[in-house]
Amino acid sequence: MDMYGHFIWSAYGATAILLVTLLAYSLFRYRIAQRQLGELVKNNREQGKKTFKVEKDS
């Protein structure tokens, strides 16, 4: 029974470590995606202003 209890707690520990690792990885990827999306939106706005000025001049 002692080995069984030890196995259960080690399985809980491994599951907890796995979940925490997945959560950290997901947050890391989410922050990278948010930053890339922000840069893309900023670039699109700048590109939109440039094309608008070109259309207005011609």
Rg (CA only): 25 Å
In helices, the fraction of residues equals over 70%
Number of contiguous helices: 1
Low-confidence stretches are none
Number of strands: 0
What characteristic shape results from the CA principal axes? rod-shaped
- Beta-strand fraction estimate: under 5%
- The overall pLDDT average reads 85
Structural category? mainly alpha
Tell me the series of helices and strands, N- to C-terminal: H
Q: Major beta sheet, specifics? A: none
Give the N-terminus to C-terminus distance in angstroms.
84 Å
Description:
By secondary structure, the protein is an all-alpha fold. Helix content is 97%, strand content 0%.
Show the helix and strand layout:
Layout: H1 2-57
What is this structure, in a nutshell?
The chain is an all-alpha fold and 58 residues long.
Structural features:
1 helix, mainly alpha, 58 residues, single chain
